[in-house]
Amino acid sequence: MNEDGKSEDQPPHPSPSTPRAPGAAFERLVGVMDQLRGPSGCPWDLEQTLATLRRWLVEETYELLDAIDADDIDAHREELGDLLLQVVFQARIRSEQGAFDVAAVCDGIADKMVRRHPHVFGDATAEDADAVRVAWSALKRKEGRQSALDGLPRGMPALARALRVGEKAADAGFDWRDPRGVLDKIDEEHAELRQAMQGGDPASIAHELGDYLFTLVNLCRHLGVDPEAALQGTNRRFERRFRVLEAGVHAEGVERIGDLGEEELERRWQAAKRATDAPHKATSGGAGVEGPGGRAASGSGSGSDPE
Predict the structure, then answer these.
(1) pLDDT tens-digit profile of 239-258?
(2) What is the DSSP string of 243-282?
(3) Is 232 strand, coil or helix?
(4) CATH fold for domain 158-223
(5) Helix axis angle, 73-96 relative to 50-70, nearest 10°?
(6) Among 61, 256, 294, CA closest to 160
(7) How many whole angstroms separate alpha carbon 164 and alpha carbon 227?
(8) CATH 1.10.3720.10 corresponds to the domain 22-113
(9) Torsion of CA 33, 34, 36, 38, to 10 degrees
(10) CB 89 within 8 A of CB 53
(11) pTM here?
């Protein structure tokens, strides 16, 4: 195993046409971890703690998301394995502490799924996904949660947390009726942000920007758009266009992009946009990214941008 916790050798994996029961494979993985952490195990693995594994857990999660976004099947399988390894690794450390083992982890999540799905494993009924969400909220209250917002991790990224807060509040019945109501709220927050900017107080500006961003995330939710995916798509489009613009400027011997005038930069930005967007029109949502002159590229969409 190398220093980032990945296997050096990737054994061949069965094709989808030859499925196996997962038990033996999972037991093998647990056995590998037991040996790595055993008396004659790997020095690197032996010195790891829950604290040192945090960075690998985060990194593996993002690598898994990259594989999903790229629709790379082999990478998806590999990254799922890397993430599963982190679960087994942490459970092994807790087992060494006498707290719990990986079997308790498996039993715990299986028990929770059965408990949370009485319409599948019991006598309850649920006609659609909305009914399931309402039932989940009621079950969580029975389990001791005092608020619909309980259970959200404190360290959750702000964009993802804003989406989940909106979803949980909506499940509790606190929401706008439709996207038009969210748009009206965006107009209100926009006006309050402008007022704060005129006042010049940094704390007030940050406050109103936060409100503005939170409302935009809720608009994404109402439109069925993943705000993280939409923003990532915009990031990728901006990066492609900027790299083309940057390369053209440097090829002409100009060291600093800012040495060009605003109108020239805008002209080059639009040219870069045309050059980079053409191959992606078939798959891109086409959401615009503003150039340096502040003029948004035309188009609309959810911001998806598969690569």
Answers:
(1) 999 999 999 999 988 888 98
(2) HHHHHHHHHTT-S-GGGS-HHHHHHHHHHHHHHHHGGGTT
(3) helix
(4) Helix Hairpins (1.10.287)
(5) 160
(6) 61
(7) 11
(8) no
(9) 160
(10) yes
(11) 0.59
